[in-house]
Amino acid sequence: MYTRINFKTKKQLKEAVANGELVEVYQPGPFGDSAPTSGRVAIEGPHFPQPHAWYADATIEDSIVVKVR
After folding, report:
1. Residues 17-34: pLDDT tens digits?
2. Percentages (nearest 5) of helix, strand, coil residues in the chain
């Protein structure tokens, strides 16, 4: 999954969540409609076409990141 904000580093994602920003996730491509909206997910960044440089294990509620590991 990706975040709506194109974070360049996992640290930026963690800081945004810690500061209370609403960070929404989505699943690109043909399987986006079946993506989970709550629970644990894997997030990757930065967005394609840039090469993925980081991965995160996150907990989401209603497609909003609430915790990043």
Report:
1. 999 999 999 999 898 888
2. 15, 35, 45
